[in-house]
Amino acid sequence: MRDAAPKTVYLAEYTPFGFIVEDVSLTFDLDPHKTRVKSRIAFRPNPEATDKTFFLHGENLDLISATIDGKPVNTEQTDEGLTCPVPDAPFVWEAEVEIDPANNTALEGLYMSNGMYCTQCEAEGFRKITYYPDRPDVMATFNVTVNGPHPVLLSNGNPVKTSQHHVEWHDPWPKPPYLFALVAGDLVAHSDSFTTMSGRKVDLNLYVRPGDEGKCAFGMEALKASMKWDEDVYGREYDLDLFNIVAVDDFNMGAMENKGLNIFNSSAVLASPETSTDMNFERIEAIIAHEYFHNWTGNRITCRDWFQLCLKEGLTVFRDSQFTSDMRSAPVKRISDVIDLRARQFPEDQGPLAHPVRPESFQEINNFYTATVYEKGAEVIGMLKTLVGDEGYYKALDLYFTRHDGDAATIEDWLKVFEDTTGRDLSQFKRWYSQAGTPRVKVEESFELDELTLTFTQHTPPSTATPDPQPQVIPIALGLIGPDGKEVLETQTVELHEETQIIRITSLEGRPVPSILRGFSAPIVLEQDLSDADRAHLLAHDTDPFNRWEAGRTLARKALLGIIENGASVDEAYLDGLRAVITDDSLDPAYRALMLGLPSQSDLANTLYEAGKAPDPAAIYDATETMRDVLASHLKDDLHALYKANQVSEPYQPDAEQSGKRSLANAMLSLITRAEGAELAAQQYAAADNMTQQLAALANAIRVGQGAQMLADFEAQWKDDRLVMDKWFGLQVMEAKPKDAAATAERLTEHPDFNHKNPNRFRAVFGALAMHHAGFHHESGDAYTLLADWLITLDPINPQTTARMCSAFQTWKRYDADRQNKIKTEVARILATRDLSRDTTEMLTRIQG
Ligand code: 0A1
Ligand code: ZN
To answer: Got the DSSP string for 768-809?
Structure first.
């Protein structure tokens, strides 16, 4: 039975552990069902702790023996761990436990994936390996011996003794248990090296299953680029002689930053032109960087407790975004990040799952690896950098690294280094960490004689997490575009502190168009009542690439809402403005392709909901289709020319330049296919020598109902490649007509290669279904029922992935009573399942509100 009252943990109740761990030795005798783990842990009383209870976490462990200072000890065990009497002086705890990695389908702790052993210990997985104070503020050096009949036996740090079927590892850097890792299997290495800024040679290995060697080169280059970038930009050098990465097929998340032994979902590291799209390459480069950057922001300086998760995640996401901006195009990266933030973080922050960047309570920490903690956490750092300037930012970071190296730190520590280096009082800014909800900023404008007055009013809607939000510090970057299209005021940053604030700009010749929230300088909703003509002016002339894109986006949204609400025709001025941008060869093709993207259907549903109208997913879908038809017809004279002009004749490279061209050419292909059928798509499919071209052609053919043969060919070609087959599964759901989406997903679950235990495959089908707005919210309710059935099936196998997928239901309040009732029924049905996991129970209870 499920716990009658699941335990809630509170930030306010933090107390340090009663003991300090000096050193840990672990010995693993690997066996699929009976792995033995011996531990030897040196403890001493923590003089700074008041609570001296000796409690070691432990779950699903079979305790074989336990001693203190060599003498057997009587332990008291619960489902969560054990306690026993201990001396009031340093002592050595030794224990032996048995675990069953082959039956560990939750993929937390030590588990098996395709015959190889691997671990996932963040956040609280180490307790499934042995008894331990499994909390991030308990840091220790580790010695690990791995015995097993495998050619490769890995753990953190450096190998100190190697013989056949036996390797001993030593990690000299004290670390929390969540960074522990072990890998064993029949693996092959793609090896290289990197010489650090102080001249130390670091051996680099990317371990993969035999057969995947050809998919390693890109990841390795990305790793070396990340190591160099962190030295150049942050002055951070790698600190071991060895850095290993391992690719595993069964993994709940993208990757994990274990000290010296990063473990990656194979989808987040394996790449080749034939099997990976440009988007895959870019994501892989970013995740490699992210995990590597954690070595300083996360590992050398870790979190005191899990409430501080954004301390490492927000900062590391911010750093990986900076890296991608430097490696590729900064405006394209910024626009993509904002699209992603609005698609994933805004619905979270504006719905029943809203929580502060630093949450104040949780039942299951795995449910808080969210877009709010990660992406809003990164936005908060971006605002800090804007407020203190580049110099102030890097000074503060230098102090952070020197002052807190080796610490388990807090958000207070983080903000203090900024206060100490810049002299700024950040007490109000700190609300970004403690208040949930997306602030809305309304700007009203008046112009008289030569003076422009802008009145800003901020308001954050209250939520369960933050019932009484207070004004925040909001940096608003703004500029002015004159009537002749020239910039009359370069970007300035205005700081909002009060609920209402007035800005005056004088000596202007004629009313300029204000370009506000340039570069998306704060994660807010801006309410600005500009005319279509003003927006078209910004679309044509804004010098800020983000706001130029945003002007087009806003016009597209208005056009779509016009179609939805009264079948209005699309404004010609917008279409002409868009055409001017798309055909402007001086602009980056990737940027032009982004200009052609439309607001998502979910986004439109939210806009309608906020305006007090129940969105009709079918009408939104139809309007989007109409809009695309309009674009195809308005741009018809340019489509083929742009398609041809953006073909790449050089050998495939996944760089920004080539991928930008492919993305614009494929945007053209989709409009051409819409207007003319799948002939060109078929040609592209036949000629494609890379996955970007092949998959785009296939998607277009399916969309116009001409993809059946291609789908069969694709399956025949790629049936042995899991990662490509994930695309095959996902694409069919994504491209299904709304009424067929649930049935398509259901049919795919009957395919012999559908395996719900593999998170990538499960997400390929059900992630695609949840993202298919009109399909998921089809009036039949079939998709709700299908997803609920599969969540019930998956929960006892893999609670973490089940719980994450529950967020598909988080927007239920937007819809009409019939859909609301259908969703509520499914949510209640899942909640009524016997023995439902803590993860899923917490998510669904919060979603119910
Ligand atoms: N720290 C990793 C993400 C991660 C979190 C939890 C996991 O299992 C519960 C796995 C990975 C990162 O930010 O990349
Ligand atoms: Zn991370």
So the answer is: HHHH-HHHHT-TT-HHHHHHHHHHHHHTTT-HHHHHHHGGGG
Question: Is residue 161 within 8 Å of residue 42, measured between CB atoms?
Answer: no
Give the number of other CB atoms < 10 A from CB of residue 247: 27
CA of 294 relative to ligand 2 center, distance in Å: 7
The C-alpha torsion from 274 through 280 and 286 to 289, rounded to 10°, is: -40
Q: Strands 408-409 and 361-362: what pairing?
A: unpaired
Which residues sit with Cβ closer than 5 angstroms to ligand 2, an ion? 313, 316
pLDDT band at 4 (very low <50, low <70, confident <90, very high): low
Q: Which ligand is nearest to the CA of 178?
A: 1
Residue 561 confidence (pLDDT) above 60: yes
Our answer to whether residue 48 is catalytic in this structure is no
- The string of pLDDT tens digits covering residues 500-549 is 999 999 999 999 999 999 999 999 999 999 999 999 999 999 999 999 99
Ligand 2 centroid to 432 CA: how many Å?
Answer: 20
Q: Which residues line ligand 1 (CB under 6 A)?
A: 120, 122-123, 252-257, 290-291, 313, 366, 369, 800
Residue of the CA atom closest to atom 5 of ligand 1: 122
Q: State both tokens at 315.
A: 């900062």
Ligand nearest to the CA of 118: 1
Alpha helix (H) residue ranges in 345-471: 346-349, 371, 377-404, 411-422, 431-434
Buried b (16+ CB within 10 A) or exposed e, 20-31: bbeebbbbbebb
* Complex-level ipTM: 0.98
User: What six digits make up the tokens of 27?
Assistant: 């010995």
Kindly give the interhelix angle for 217-234 and 309-327, rounded to the nearest 10 degrees.
Answer: 100
Q: What pLDDT, in 10s, does the model give residues 804-813?
A: 999 999 999 9
Closest by CA position to 460, among listed 337, 390, 356: 356
Nearest-CA neighbor of 215 among 289, 136, 160, 269?
269
Give residue 1's pLDDT. 39
Compute the distance between CA of residue 714 and CA of residue 330 in angstroms, rounded to an integer.
35
Among all bound ligands, the one having the nearest atom to the CA of 258 is 1
Task: Please state the φ and ψ torsions of residue 309, each to the nearest 5 degrees.
Answer: -50, -40
- Averaged pLDDT for residues 313-323: 99
Distance 254 CA to ligand 1 centre (A): 7
Neighbours of 484 (CB within 10 A): 10
Check residue 2 and give its pLDDT: 45
Which among 280, 299, 151, 181 is positioned nearest to 266, based on CA atoms? Answer: 280
Nearest CA to ligand 1 atom 8: 122
The mean of the pLDDT values for the chain is 98
The alpha carbon of 135 is separated from its chain's Cα centroid by a whole number of angstroms, namely: 23
Specify the residue with its C-alpha closest to ligand 1, atom 4. Answer: 256
The predicted model scores a pTM of 0.99
Round to whole Å and give the CA distance between 209 and 842: 37
For 444, the enclosing helix (H) or strand (E) is strand 440-448
Residue given tokens 């700024």 in the structure block:
424
Q: Out of 122, 168, 285, 291, pick the active-site residue.
A: 291
Helices (H), 96-186: none
pLDDT in tens, 406-433: 999 999 999 999 999 999 999 999 999 9
Residue nearest (by alpha carbon) to ligand 1 atom 13: 313
Please determine, for residue 15, whether its predicted confidence score (pLDDT) is greater than 60. Answer: yes
Residues contacting 145, CB < 8 A, separation 6+: 25, 26, 27, 28, 166, 167, 168, 169
41, 119 in Cβ contact below 8 A? no
C-alpha to C-alpha distance for 61 and 74, rounded to whole angstroms: 16
